[in-house]
Amino acid sequence: MKYTFMAAHDGEFQVKRMCRVLRVGRSGYYAWRRRSPSWREQANQALVALIRAEHRASRQTYGSPRIQAALRRKGVVCGRHRVAHLMRQDGLCARPRRKGHFPVTTRRQDGVVPAPNRLDQDFSAPAPNRKWVSDFTYVETGEGWLYLAVVLDLFSRRVIGWAMSKTMDTALVETALRMALLQRQPEAGLLHHSDQGCQYTSAAYLNCLTAASTQLSMSRVGNCYDNAVIESFFGTLKTECVPGPFLTHAQARTTIFEYMEVWYNRQRLHSTLGYYSPVDFELQLTL
Fold this sequence. Notes:
Elements: H1 2-8, H2 15-22, H3 26-34, H4 39-57, H5 64-73, H6 80-90, E1 131-139, E2 146-153, E3 158-165, H7 170-184, E4 191-194, H8 203-211, E5 215-218, H9 228-240, H10 249-264, H11 278-283
Helix pairs in contact: 4-5, 4-6, 5-6
């Protein structure tokens, strides 16, 4: 370890001074420098190169569990602790979650009777189009807030409907729902879960759900855990896709679309899905 430190700081400090501080001999240090790397060191160097490639491919978002899973799917056998150790040495880590203060999006409509919480925090689903969850969030831009509505299928965590708008009105969430219904064509009995916001209790939105013969479910007031999966998705999106305010609405729309449809649905490995992407997880049903 001492020799490794000295080699890393060779151009910063004099070798003579480092040997004196670390209490090692110069002859031993130079002999170590001339010695060929061990097979373990060579293997680590090769593995670090693969880890760096996977980290770049993940948009610098993967930590050691997903890096290891990605390597394992390519036939590279390595332990998670070894990957974590090498990532720490190389200064690689997953992007940390953002924190901030944002506008309130859930606004209840007076006099409306909400649906019961039929989902009851059971986020498992035996097949696609059995349970959907819906919500919307906000993205900061130089032109003001941009609102994003999303519908997720709980079976695969896949984004199956989405819409973006400058206003958080009923049209926003209805557009996302209509996209999901058009793409998936669910059978009667689908469970649809949302919060009690006025957008989700509006006549226009409820008429769409009634026409599709869905069961309604709504979160309890002030309980974010009732819709935890979609809350987690929004947290992931803002961490991996929204490093800071976008300049314009157009830039935000393009970036978020590419993130959801290209990266999140088709490439990003999900620990809940056994480190498959949502699309690949659904494809397992046909194999």
